[in-house]
Amino acid sequence: MLMKWIVQLSKQVKPTMSEAAVTTNEEAPRWSRLFDNIDREHGFESLRVEGHLPQDLIGTIYRNGPGVFTRGGVRIAHLFDGDGAIAATRFSHAEAEGAVRFVQTRAREREERKQRWLYGGYKQSFQRPIREVLLGRSKNPANTGVLLHQGKLFALCEAGKPIELHPDELSTLGEEDFGGVIQTFNAHPKRVVSRAATYSIGVRLGRTHQIDILEVPDFGCARRLATLPAGTVGMVHDFAVTERHLILFIPPQRVKLLSMLLRNRGLVDAIDWDQSAGTEIVTISLDAPDQVRRFRTESFYMEHVANAYEEKDGEIVIDFTRYENLATFENLVQPLVHLRVGAPLSMSLSRMRLAASCKSATFETLLGESCELPHTANAHRGKRHNVTYLAGQPDSERPYDAFTSTLKIDHLHNRVERFFHGKDTAGGEPIFVPRPNAKDEDDGYLLVPVFDPKTGSSHEAIFDARRVSDGPIARAHHSQPIPPRFHGAWLEPV
After folding, report:
1. Domain spans in the chain, listed from the N-terminal domain onward
2. pLDDT per residue as tens digits for the range 354-371
């Protein structure tokens, strides 16, 4: 009877047009082409190279992000809801090739065929909310992150199963649940070298929300280490991991499920933020996952973790980008897909020191200017790092100047290097690639995706990571603009 009632109620809820159905812009900003649909998919083809590519840079950078923003003349509500597209740049013997293809999910194929939006999501209104939210028939946009595991390539979203792609052709092979272990898989997996395993989380919404703690070893079967009650939390975007612990930041927010089910609202519009409740810090032992410690601290929103490690006395150090609340983040991000200027960038790179008891924490600001998409050397994941790379915004007084700069922080010497890509450019996540037999943490190359309005196209900028302020030593130019890439991963040839 309950299932029958749910299906009947689902049919009674009338579809509503996206809040972003009509967008008017009398004068489009110079960066507007960054939010055009990708108009040409293609396999690997030769790219024009400016400068001199290093001979020892051999491998492929895969980057994931939305690739479609308008369908049937209707603009999508939020860039986080756009269909995922993998853009790849392959380097070999001082030459570069590029490819870009959509992740071909069933939901995308259906929407393309109908030429209209048919599913809800992060902000996109749910048109069949009961079926999508409660019955699990939701859209997996696969548009946020990348997982490389046992030579396989997967596209990831905030809360869906990984979707496998062919690493050379970028063709879609299908969803993967790793033997039924994974129901949802976060877009920020973290491999810890010393443990020969990759860790992730999976947030499951329901009558009582839950967070799965997941381990995917380099060899062997995936397993669910623990499942934690999460109250009414709406989303946990990222997490931290050391060589011994996994740490969650659970923000003080509540998902109003009835609002999603009966008012045709996307997830972000059904979230209430309670500033007085405090952000919950949850610490899980990787070796004894039943040992869970939880406490609340001051309220804040964490978007991305740079890295985490443990001191000899057991204190856990976590570097992350910090916002006052979720609205601070959304006020900037939401208008961009509609080509409107949002609120000024307002975040910082912060450090939390979590006491060995995991019952108290202190905070300090490492970089008090607007910055995001932090990255550290993969070899230092979970242990002490001395270098952090970020996308930066040099003038936070301008409402939107994109991430026009690439930053390098030398924590050992308390020094910051900056390179400014140019006015109205849009940079992305810097990814460090070590040189063969590298001895130092910055002995290698830094790869940064950049959109340049002067050319109307995108390129991959290659830096000598030891001298970021000197600018790129080479640029590999794509023939078209590539929309914002959120996160990526580097694959060396076997």
Report:
1. 2-17+32-491
2. 999 999 999 999 998 889
